[in-house]
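Apologies for my clumsy wording, but can you show me some protein sequence, whichever is easiest, together with the matching structure tokens, please?
=====
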Amino acid sequence: MHPDIQKYNHNQIEEDGLICSLLSEIIMEHLPEAENKVWHAHPVWFLEGNPIVGYDKLKDSVRLLFWSGASFEEEKLKIGTGKFKDASIRYTNASQINKEEVIRWIEKSKVIQWDYKNIVKRKGVLERLK
């Protein structure tokens, strides 16, 4: 894991730190091939330069976000607003994290991807990969 992600996790207080640490462990175990770094101030994992999954500390929770999650057809993932294909779930306690669900979403993120890497080149138009 990138040292900046470890630093991000350690900078969170109490329960938020536990949530971040657990999420990063699950993601690292099931996306070992992914590049990972702090990107736009929060931890993100990439496949071939395309953002796949990340999390960030919000005011009242930690949000786990899948960039292509709107296409996963998962009831618990809330679809973002706007033209992007993201979906997320928020946690306020580490006990809320269902590891099997997160693993399933990670597996879906490997095969269901929208091309965020080239969104600027395509002037904001997203295309499905794979």
Residues 3-129 form a domain with the Aspartate Aminotransferase, domain 1 fold (CATH 3.90.1150.200). The mean pLDDT is 94. Strands lie at 35-39, 42-47, 50-57, 62-66, 78-79, 87-91, 113-114, 128-129.
